[in-house]
Amino acid sequence: MEQLNRVELRGTVGSVYVKDFGNKKCVNFSVATNYCFKDREGCPVIETTWHRVIAWENQDTADAFKMKKGDSVHVLGRLRIQRYTGADGVERQVVEIVANKVESIS
Questions:
Q1: What are the angstrom distances between the C-alpha of 53 and each of 3, 16, 29, 76?
Q2: pTM score, whole prediction
Q3: How does residue 77 score in pLDDT terms, banded at 50, 70 and 90?
């Protein structure tokens, strides 16, 4: 059986942080996506989900390094779970998207 770990998002950029490791750069940014539906009374409800994205510097992710808050973006990548122990001793996990391709949407 073939396995697949693929994520595709289109949304709005939140915070953007570029990190420089000398020979390579990465950018961490958040993307907000909206899901619209009607509740039991028929009133529209918008549910916003924030996604954490990391993109390493390469040809397909060049647009990520030019983004700013409020830009529209299309992201292709894979899910990764990061586990860590906080300062309070509690184990936590964070789900993030490692981007293979990032495109700005006009």
A1: 22, 10, 5, 10
A2: 0.85
A3: very high
